[in-house]
Batch of 3 targets.
Target 1
Amino acid sequence: MPERCIILIDGSNFYFKLKEIGYHNLTGFDFRGFAYHLKGSSILQKATYYVGAVKQDGTTKINRLHADQQKLLAKIRSDGFRYKLGFLLKSNNVFHEKGVDVQLAVDMLEASYEDLCDRVILVSSDTDLKPAVKKVVSKGKIVEYVGFAHKPSVAMMNCCSSSHLLTKTEIGVFNTTP
C-alpha cells in the first residue's frame, strides 16, 4: 500500500526563512508544486498552512498587511492547501504569533493517533514542536523535518525521523515572481 503523508507548514517560520534567501512575495509561490515535490511518491492526504491572523485596526499599515494576508490565503486555497489561523499579539510595538504551534502540534498528534497518515512532512524549524514530534515518532509514524540549508535546526534534525534541507536553488523553482 502506498505511503500516505500530510504536509504541515509553519507559515511565519517559512516566510522568514524564504525572506533570508531573497524571496519576499509568497503570493507568487507555487505551493501546489512545492507540495508535490515534498510528497514524492506518497499519497498526499492534506496540506495545511498555519499563520497568525492579521486583525485590522484602522491603520494604513495594518490594513495593507491584512489585505496582503488575504491575498496569500486565497493563493494558498487555490493551490489546494488548507489554512489555520492563530493570532498576532502586539507587545512593545512588536507582533508575536500565538496559537499556531499548538494547532500544528494537535494536527500532528491527531494524524498519528487516528492513523490518518504514515508520514508527517513538517516544514518548521520551531523546536517548540519537539515534544509532539517525539510522540508522533513513538507511535510509529515518520516525521520528516523540512528546513533550510542556510539555517538548519540541528535540534529538529535530531528528533525527526529524516530531514530535507532546502537550498535556494531548489526552492527557487517554486518562486513564480521575479
Target 2
Amino acid sequence: MRRVRGFSLIELVIALTLVAVLGGVLLERTIYYREVAEKANMQQVAADLRSSVNLRVGELMLVNRLTELDALASENPFDLLARKPQNYLGVLDGPSPEQVPPGNWYFDKQSKEVVYSVDLGRYFVPDAGGVKRVTWRVVLVQGAAKPEWARLELVKPYRWF
C-alpha cells in the first residue's frame, strides 16, 4: 500500500508567499481607494459650500441687498448649508494643526477660512510647514464702486495624487 502524503514543505512556503503577496496588493489598493474616496468627499463638500455661497449672493441680489455682501466674506459658509457634514467640528479660533483631528472640517474664526484637515494623505503634498490641509475663503468680486459678487476660492492650490 502506498502512503498518501499532504503538501511538501516547499509547496506550503510557495502557497503562503503567494497569499502574503496577494494580501499586500489588496491592502495597498484598499488604502489607495480610501484616499481617493476621501478626496472626492472633500471636493463634494467644497462644491456644496461654493454653491451655497452663490445661492446666498443670488438671494441678496433678488431682494436688492448687495450691501450685505461685505458681511458674507466674514461669515461661516457652513451656516448656509441645509445640513452640515458629519465631520464638521464647528467654529475654531485659530487652532494649531495638532489640535484638529485629521479628516475634519472647521471654520477658522481668526483667518475667516474654511479648512479641511486631510486624514490619509499618502499622496497629498503638504504645505511649507508640513501640514496636510486645504483652505478656502469667501472672496468678494469688486465692481466699479462696490462688491458685485462673492465666491468661495482656494486660498492656495494643493496637489493630491
Target 3
Amino acid sequence: MPLPEAAAAHAMGEEHILPDVLAPGLSIVFCGTAAGTESARRRAYYAHPQNRFWRVLHEAGLTPRRLAPAEFALLPDFGLGLTAGRRYLGRDGAGYGPQPERIGETAIWLLPSPSPTATWKWDRAPWLALGEAAKAQRNRF
C-alpha cells in the first residue's frame, strides 16, 4: 500500500523525503541519502531488506550493534548523521574515500552505495576504511 505523500514527492522530483538527522558535534554525516521506494514506504532510511547500510555500519565499528532502519533517529547517539550531499557539494564525487573538500575541520568521504540496486558497484572496503579512520580519530582524544 503506497504512501500518497511519498508518491507525490517522488512524482514532483523530491528525492529526499526523509528528515535530515543532524545534531551539533557529529563525527560523521552520511550524505546523498535519497529514499528508495521501500525506504519511502516505510519512512525509514535504508529500509530495503537487502540494503547493506545498517550491517556495514556495525561491521565498520561505527555502531555498537546492527540498528534497524526504523532506529535511524538514534544515529546522533553514535556521532552519526544523515542528509543529501549532492546539494551540499554541488558535484558528484570523483572516487571513493576521502574527498578534497572539508566542512570546517570535517573530512568528507565518498562511499559506494549500499543499495541492492547497486550490487555491481558494492565494495565494503571504503566503508571499513572509514570505520578505521573514525576509530583512529576517537583514539586521538
